[in-house]
Write a structure and sequence with these properties.
This protein has one helix at residues 3-56. It is mostly helical and 81 residues long. It has a domain at 25-57. It is elongated. The model has no long low-confidence stretch (mean pLDDT 85).
Length: 81
């Protein structure tokens, strides 16, 4: 392979790498803010729904004073090999 062809392939590879980096940065400039805004909207909606449920009395924390303790028995079963 001639020397000029090797240099040309090296330049092409570098330009392709640079193009991929620029493309990835461009996509990141769009995707990252969209993801942040989406996360903020989901968090805001979850907080509103959770606050509404607490106001309606649907979400009470389990504690011994409320008698929300479930007792049960269990048995460990070992397989013999």
């Amino acid at each position: 392979m001639p020397r000029w062809a090797k240099a040309l392939m090296l330049v092409a590879a570098l330009l392709l790498g640079l193009l991929l980096i620029i493309l990835a940065a461009g996509v990141a400039l769009i995707v990252i803010p969209v993801a942040i805004v989406s996360a903020m909207v989901v968090r805001w909606r979850y907080r509103n729904r959770a606050a509404e449920a607490v106001r309606q009395g649907g979400m009470r924390h389990a504690s011994p004073q409320h008698g929300n303790i479930i007792e049960g028995e269990y048995r460990v079963i070992d397989r013999e090999r």
